Amino acid sequence: MQFIKIGIFGLGVVGASVVSIIRKNQDLIQSRLGAGLEVTRAVVANPGKPRDISLEGITLSTDPATILDDPEIDIVVELIGGVDLAGEIVLQALERDKPVVTANKALLAERAREIFTKVYEKDLPLGLEASVAGGIPVLRSLKEGLSADRIIEISGIVNGTCNYILSKMTAEGASFDDVLAEAQSLGYAEADPAFDVEGFDAAHKLAILVNLAYGTMVNFKDIHVEGITAITPMDIEYAGLLGFTVKLLAIGKIHGEVVEARVHPALVANDHLLASVNGVFNAVFLTGDNADATMSYGRGAGGLPTGSAVVSDIIDIARNLRAGIRNKIPALSVIQERLRDLEIMKMDRIRSEYYLRFQVFDRVGVLAQITRVMGDNNISIQSMIQPALSDHPDDPVQVILITHRAREADVQKSLAEIAHFDFIAGETQLIRIERFTG
Amino acid sequence: MQFIKIGIFGLGVVGASVVSIIRKNQDLIQSRLGAGLEVTRAVVANPGKPRDISLEGITLSTDPATILDDPEIDIVVELIGGVDLAGEIVLQALERDKPVVTANKALLAERAREIFTKVYEKDLPLGLEASVAGGIPVLRSLKEGLSADRIIEISGIVNGTCNYILSKMTAEGASFDDVLAEAQSLGYAEADPAFDVEGFDAAHKLAILVNLAYGTMVNFKDIHVEGITAITPMDIEYAGLLGFTVKLLAIGKIHGEVVEARVHPALVANDHLLASVNGVFNAVFLTGDNADATMSYGRGAGGLPTGSAVVSDIIDIARNLRAGIRNKIPALSVIQERLRDLEIMKMDRIRSEYYLRFQVFDRVGVLAQITRVMGDNNISIQSMIQPALSDHPDDPVQVILITHRAREADVQKSLAEIAHFDFIAGETQLIRIERFTG
Description:
Distance between the termini of chain A: 47 Å
Strand content of chain A: 15-25%
Number of helices of chain A: 15
Radius of gyration of chain A: 24 Å
Largest sheet of chain A: 12 strands, mixed
Oligomer: homodimer
Helix content of chain A: 25-40%
CATH topology of the largest domain in chain A: Rossmann fold
CATH architecture of the largest domain in chain A: 3-Layer(aba) Sandwich
């Protein structure tokens, strides 16, 4: 029996799961691959640290060269995270003609051009399934399952922490801060949750989805990113009254040579399947011009689901090795000569419907003045609710307007103008309403 | 530019869509494949028939040999349906070393052994993505995305006609017959709907899913198949009162060397995502030992979605041809030596919770007698509702029992015994309740 030899950088939660899966399902993997898999080397920061898995058969080192320069290593797995050292490891492995599997979304999003240029230059596979939506094989769907389709739209719930928090806030009417504290105690949110709740993790994943869908390498910094920290139980309640659920969405679309790529909270109609995706689960809608709407759903994080994706990539690459080929499918779905430079659309150019919650002192003519400004800016109103009047005429009340489809620039201009009225009692809340093609 | 040449058997709805997609997305496909695709020959029953697509560049014939014996044809696409002629075409194409793509679920389910034995013997790819759940790349998820996982459970809504009918019955309280008539007028159901509504189409798809999940070729005839014709608006209403939705499910599980493979209506808890899959849409849950629950959702039928799956298979095979290999991934997920003979579990051995609706004359002691029989057969009751009493003491009333997990044999024995009581006013309705691992 041939054994494909693997060197892993990083034996944290995912790395340890990869080792466990390969051991536990060795016989199954052999039945599918016709060869065995064997982790022979690992490089870690702290070799003395106690670990949950047995290290039998694995040579541990702190020196990357022990993996990179070992001619016996067939596949390199990068699971240390971060963009600097991880980037060097991936580039050097490729330089030495070793195929790479990585779960590193930050690296793939922020250093896309360097990494993928090297991948194309070497014509090697780069396993990246684990980088987006953990155990859900959604990147494979994009590169293979929908290879006959022009991708019209990507809409994903790709951050489990945010989805857990929003789901709990929705189910219990609880505040963001309370649910975040609970999520932290359950291990669903990091001690420093900013990276998740501010939307950056979702933006990394969106960059990868957009790059694969459109055969490009967008500038990550141009992605518009808003998190969920400003979402209140009140907004969730009013959205519910109007038939919507609040979700943090990663949205990708294409218009000629310009792509929309944005992460922000959005109102999703309750009868759309994304509204039913709750808790830590992830789901990605991919809409193709032939297949129409498809959705992939599952666990977006956790050692075993992410490890499953890593090992499936290892098996895929091992099948290449067994077949005697370097690579079968281009890393970004298209061949190198057909990669495109696509700009990300400036946010003020996008069009959407909007949920706007004004906090106003309840005086005569307030609504007329707000709607006049909006009308002057080409925004028409779909519906209005004023959920509860205060007993005290001096307390502010909430006025919620749902707009028809409008330009973001016009909406922002309206809000800036309306902010000057002296009946405005606080910051206006803006949440975009996402409608779907499929 | 190299052009991969394709011969298509059948230019019906799907065949015409394949031709259209290849033409419409030719440039896109070239960017992904590095080569073009070209349908050069088609074999049809009636070459003179008017068609919606231009036949320019396609040589039409009624003679299979024009494709099978043409050395220029790189890939054979079988879209004529049926198991006899289609089977011969697929076998002969393989015999001539031509890779095949087919959407033919009946053929793959009913003649699995012949077809897959030939596929393995020739070590050729067999594209079959379109055979299950049309535009949803779920078979690819099974063969590639979850290749590191032991598949614990398959649960799918894989027949759009049944799901449309059940969704409509649920939304509108309408009868099966009325909704079926409407579905027929909208083209969602065939003039002869038996094949769909009796569950056979779903059973074909289940056979394929089970074979791919477990690396086997089950005997299709052993799959337990029940359709939806006996589901009444009353059952849907009572299920709703109890927190469930009625769905036609295709269920596959494994217990050692025995698989469960069954198609029947089932009660799904409303908070499970499958309960939110409505209309003609399909969805397949695949639960792996590492990835946990994953779901693929989308359009399970229609020319373009199915055509999209066919063309994605063509591209996949063309990528093999471009890479200079015959095949990369074993047809049934495992290498030939590791195929297993797995028996399908006899239905009386399965275990489930049950929804039982008894029609009884409302006399003293009825419930005591029913529950005594069930208790004697090791069945314990989870809950009971008796939704409405009649004004006329002689009219039958409905008593609904939800059982705890019980053996099918015990439940059937109880029902046979209970049928003899003289307070029983009609046939007892049995619907299994499906709980999910993931």
